[in-house]
Structures are given as C-alpha cells and as structure tokens.
Prior knowledge:
By secondary structure, the chain is an alpha/beta fold. The chain has helices at residues 5-16, 40-52, 105-112, 153-169, 180-183, 185-189, 198-211, 232-258, and strands spanning 28-33, 74-79, 84-91, 138-144, 173-178, 218-220. The protein contains 8 helices and 6 strands. The protein has a 6-stranded mixed beta sheet with strand order 2-3-1-4-5-6, with helices on both faces.
Amino acid sequence: xxxxxxxxxxxxxxxxxxxxxxxxxxxxxxxxxxxxxxxxxxxxxxxxxxxxxxxxxxxxxxxxxxxxxxxxxxxxxxxxxxxxxxxxxxxxxxxxxxxxxxxxxxxxxxxxxxxxxxxxxxxxxxxxxxxxxxxxxxxxxxxxxxxxxxxxxxxxxxxxxxxxxxxxxxxxxxxxxxxxxxxxxxxxxxxxxxxxxxxxxxxxxxxxxxxxxxxxxxxxxxxxxxxxxxxxxxxxxxxxxxxxxxxxxxxxxxxxxxxx
Length: 260
C-alpha cells in the first residue's frame, strides 16, 4: 500500500472524474448494513470527510452502544467541494437479535429492490415494477474488528440471509471492517501497520468465515472518530475501499444494460 499525498490525490481524481455509462441509471446506490455500533454512519461521514478534505458530520452518529442511533434509512449523495458525484450511500438502522427493534431482514430486502419505509403500504408485487435506477447496486456489510469474535450468531445469521437474498438478485457485495485501531495496538500506534498486522488479518479472516464475504472484497478501515482534521493515511484506506465498491456497483449496472 502506498501512503503518499500523491496516492491520495490520485484516488480523489478517480472520484472527481467518475461517470456512469448507463443512460437508465444516473446514480449508483450503495447500501450499508450491519449490527448496532458497527460504524455505518461513521463510515459515511469518513468517506464524506475524505472527499472534502475536512471533518464532516452529515450522518448523525453516536458513541454509545446498545441501540441504533439511526432510526430509518437515510440516503446521502457523495459530494466533493465543487462536485456532486453520481453515487449515493444508504445508511440503515443497526441490526439486533431477532427479538430486538433493529433493522429486519424483510426491510432490507425491500430496500434492495428499491422500496423504502414510505412505500410500506404498497402491494408486495409492486417491487417487480421498480426500475434499475431505484434499486441497490451494491450491498456493503459493515462489521467491527474489535468485537467480531464475541458477536452473537443471531445478527450474523440475519446478515448472511440478506447476502443470500442479494445474491438471488445478482447484486454485488463487499465488506467494510471498522474499528481496526481498537482491535490491534500496532495499528493504533500507526495506521500504516494495518496490512502487516497479524491481528487484523485474523479479524478479516474471521469476518470472511462468519459471513462468507471473500477476503479480496473485505476492506479494513479506521473511521474518523476523535480526529479534528483529516489524515492522509486514513483517507487512503477509506477512498481505496470505497472506490472498489463503486466500481463493483458500476460493473453491475453496466452488466444489466448489456443484458437488455
């Protein structure tokens, strides 16, 4: 991994120049899902901060664990200072065990097909009428590195079932692993140690084994949490992972166009 300012500039230029080649879809839609406290909202804020070069807080986040601070799906357009990108991140309520009040499988499946809460009164067969532009173009699972080992099977099973539904729809999938600095002291000391850390590799392998996402589609990141200015190394991790996810979504949209 290259950690230079030039690498960060290269990644920012990739976003600034990003365009879609499908006239039926003007914006990519990327869905974040995961357990309560995984850092989904903070991940969006971190992407937003990296793109703008300053700390932002468009998605309301919370530092206390227990219940989800996000209460409904929120759609955020990615923006640079002078440009609105053709990319949206959809942040969802955190998932809990089956008896909890968190996001449910059926809710996320409807979002995958382009239906949000304000359409819950529509007949179920309406989901077939949603055009490609309204549907989700990539599903991103978000898991925290610091407590994946003790996470209950309930939430993992729910997330696995959502992955299977997304597979049935042909939607590409990836994973963001957050809180790497809390999982490894060496990464806490220096974020550049992230890819040489055996602890982080072990956490990524555990995420792979529990949820089934291949290692090459898992991106470890450190969200902005207590920093008051952006950092080149943190930005590179976030932008590199996000760029890969965007390309997966674009490939999916392009494939749908080519199939007509």
